[in-house]
Amino acid sequence: MANLERRKLTPEEIAMFRDILVNERDKTIETINAGASRREDVENVADEADLAKRDLDTGMETRLGNRSALYLRKVESALARIKSGTYGICQGSGEPIEFKRLLARPTAEYSIAYKEEQERQEIRSADGRQPKSLGRGLERPRSL
Q1: Per-residue pLDDT tens over the stretch 24-41
Q2: What CATH number labels 9-85?
Q3: Which of 26, 45, 110, 131 could cross-link with 114 by S-S, CB 3.0 to 4.6 Å?
Q4: Do the Cβ atoms of 111 and 98 come closer than 8 Å?
């Protein structure tokens, strides 16, 4: 494995990331607002095919809106870390997050090494892991 650059960000770099994140926040808010206004402009449906298409479109817009809202929370969290002076520091190890990682993902909370270790742990404990979507594991049916 190549030696990854691990250094604290300079004030200029932090300012650059703040600008990137503010721009991302503004674009995401615009996207969320545009989706909301499209949902308000839904015209009357003429038949079942139009109704089905509208339902599919609405479902897709809802998923995209949920994704945008999640991303907005991540951007806001990154901006809060900038304000508190902890941006660019891995929340798991306390080590600096690589500059290249932050360029690729300005909302990153963890260094690559820490995130990879988390994923290895998840794979090793996959049987005991709770699904994120359900909140708890499914129970096995009891034998009669």
Answers
A1: 999 999 988 886 655 544
A2: 1.20.120.910
A3: 110
A4: yes
